[in-house]
Every structure is written in structure tokens, then in C-alpha cells.
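Comment thread on ticket #2218

A.B. wrote:
> Attaching the input chain for the structure job we discussed in standup.
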Amino acid sequence: MSILLNLYRKLLNLPLSLLVKSRSIPTDPITELALNREQPLIYVLPYTSQSDLLILQQNCRSLNLPDPLEQNVINGVSLPRFVFLNEDRCIFLNQKEAKKRNCCLYSSLFRFTQTRSQFRCATHPCFCSLGKSSR
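C.D. wrote:
> Ran it. Output below, let me know if you need it in another format.
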């Protein structure tokens, strides 16, 4: 299943990189939001959209932020770096699997925060909006 998803992302990335020009708000999130690049980071997207995820990846690369498609490694456990809040239109996973994945992610993070008082994890809501460019 992940082979198909990776192929789909690669095919989708080409037209997105040519057609989409993005603007990040804030323009310098590391300093404006006082991000610690050493702590785990979870990107929260409102709904299932591979195109939004790839646009987020492009923005993260340009802003020198961690790649959302890479894994967070927390105490030897690999966890996804992104989560979709609403996975009702998921092509590559059925709804139950998608919701189970999200529940596992959240419960793992809560377990870490309960057992380790010094553990911090940053969650960042992300939203992609399409509009006309102002020329």
C-alpha cells in the first residue's frame, strides 16, 4: 500500500511544483513561533489531502522546517510527523484504519507526556488555501 501512495505522491508532486506558488504565514515560523527544532513536531492538517501535504512539504523545505513525510523518532519509537483530522476521503486506507492510526498516534504522544514531565511535542495546525495570484 505504501508503494502506491509513494508513487501517487511522486506523480502529484510534479504538477504541484510547477503550478502552485505558496506563501507561508508566518513568514519565519522558527523565530516568530519560537520553535525548538530539537523537539518532535506534528503537523495537523484539517482533512485528507495529499496535495496539501505535498504543498506543506514544499513550504517546510523552503522554511528549513522538518519534512512532514519523515518520521518523528521519540525514545526509539517512530511516529508520523503529520496527521489528518478528518480522514473520510482517504483512498489508500479505509476509514477505520485511518482513525485507528490517528488514535494510536495521539495515545502514544499522551503516554510520552504523562511518563516524562520534561517531554515536549509541538503541534502545528496547517491549512492550505487556493486563490488567484495578485500580479
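A.B. wrote:
> Thanks. Noting for the ticket: The radius of gyration is 16 Å.
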